[in-house]
Design goal:
Blueprint lengths: L3 H14 L4 E5 L5 H11 L23 H4 L5 E8 L17 E2 L9 H22 L7 E4 L7 H7 L4 E2 L5 E2 L7 E8 L18 H5 L17 H7 L6 H4 L5 E3 L3 H4 L26 H5 L3 H7 L10 H15 L5 H7 L5 H22 L1
Parallel strand pairs: 3-8
Antiparallel strand pairs: 1-2, 2-7, 4-7, 5-6
The structure holds iron/sulfur cluster (2 copies).
Length: 363
């Protein structure tokens, strides 16, 4: 019978064979980070992301503890894939006619599919290994974002990286451009150790956030975060946050772009994450003029679909308003007559903003 340590090492080797860049093992116990989660939800920091609030029959938040959501699990295998590419960071790219789609979303294929396929490969090879070793078939569940588990916390305890002040997982060699996938298993494994927090006295991410979404280091108010506002938020974006959105049309990379640990971040070796050229610094007018059919075609197989067609038009209108470019007044005029009242209102706001910026510059 192989020891838990032997099995842990074997699983990590199999994960690298499946194409992951990093793999580690965490225990299943609740951690100090888990204790903050119920309060974070109670404070309304998750906004409209109701899926984070799913509860069991007794009313306990499933994501608050694996003892609630998967009491059979004995270990968590956390795998990571680097998605960085050689495109400039958002803080050094683009012109006022262009918007920004978050680095993770301009890929050739949706990362959920890519990671899940690799997790399935790991699951298959692990099962074969266990059966050969006479342990029988272990129970496993694989997730990419969809499980009742806060991946980041287990990534820390699996040794993948520390949780930075920007709340992202940071690896000393790879930086923070990491997709995470997890496999819960009934196997007793030897966990890795959490890495040292190397943020030190740095506060670049906190200082750079345009919407002040960090109430404190290591805490994120998702309702103020541009990623939430441009992707998850349905309906109108609160007016007081619109100017801070700048020209971000899907997600935001700023608090990762400014992080010193990403300065030398290596490039991905996963071809599925190479960029679709049109989605890097996309032309705002092109986005604003997409038909529904073109939207479906352009963003097929990318996470951008999550924003929905009218969500992307809303975001493009706000970005055009923030650009201050008078050349956008015509397309905004047409968007202000859009059937969707949220798009129409955003376009109206954007026109007023461009005129206000113009008159400020004229004074
Ligand atoms: S993603 Fe952008 S808006 Fe969100 S916390 Fe980071 S810098 Fe702020
Ligand atoms: S920018 Fe600085 S404080 Fe923020 S995550 Fe990176 S190292 Fe930590």
């Amino acid at each position: 019978m192989p020891s838990p340590l032997h099995l842990s090492n074997e699983i990590k080797r199999l994960a690298l064979d499946a194409g992951f860049d990093l793999a580690g093992v965490s225990g299943v116990s609740d951690t100090s980070e888990h204790q903050f989660f119920p309060q974070w939800i109670a404070d309304g920091r998750a906004g409209d992301m109701r899926y984070l609030e799913t509860r069991n029959e007794a009313g306990h938040l499933k994501r608050a503890s694996l003892a609630i959501s998967a009491p059979w699990a004995r270990s968590v295998v956390v795998c990571a894939l680097n998605y960085n590419t050689d495109q400039p960071y958002s803080t050094h790219a683009g012109t006022t006619s262009q918007g920004w789609i978050s680095r993770y979303a301009w890929t050739q294929r949706d990362y959920h599919d890519v990671l899940l396929a690799k997790l399935r490969q790991l699951e298959t090879s692990l099962t074969a290994h266990c059966e050969q070793a006479g342990i029988g078939t272990p129970r496993t569940w694989c997730y990419v974002d969809t499980g009742p588990i806060i991946e980041r916390i287990f990534a820390k305890y699996a040794g993948i990286g520390w949780i930075g002040k920007n709340t992202c997982i940071l690896n000393q060699e790879l930086g923070s451009w990491l997709f995470l996938g997890v496999m819960l298993t009934s196997l007793e494994l030897t966990p890795d150790l959490p890495p040292t927090d190397r943020c030190g006295s740095c506060t670049r991410c906190l200082d750079a956030c345009p919407t002040n979404a960090f109430p404190a280091p290591y805490q994120l108010d998702a309702t103020k975060c541009i990623s939430y506002l441009t992707i998850e938020k349905r309906g109108a974006i609160p007016e007081d946050l619109r100017s801070g959105i700048g020209r971000q049309v899907f997600g935001c990379d700023i608090c990762q772009d400014v992080c010193p640990w990403n300065r030398q971040a290596p490039l991905t070796k996963t071809p599925e994450f190479f960029p679709r050229p049109k989605l890097v610094n996309p032309e705002l007018e092109w986005l604003a003029r997409l038909s529904l059919e073109e939207f479906r075609e352009v963003f097929r197989g990318t996470p951008v679909k999550r924003a929905k067609y009218t969500g992307l038009l809303r975001n493009a209108a706000i970005a055009m308003g923030n650009s201050g470019e008078e050349r956008f007044l015509t397309v905004l005029e047409s968007l202000s007559r859009h059937n969707d009242p949220i798009v129409a209102e955003a376009a109206d706001w954007a026109r007023r903003r461009i005129l206000a910026i113009g008159s400020d510059q004229g004074e």
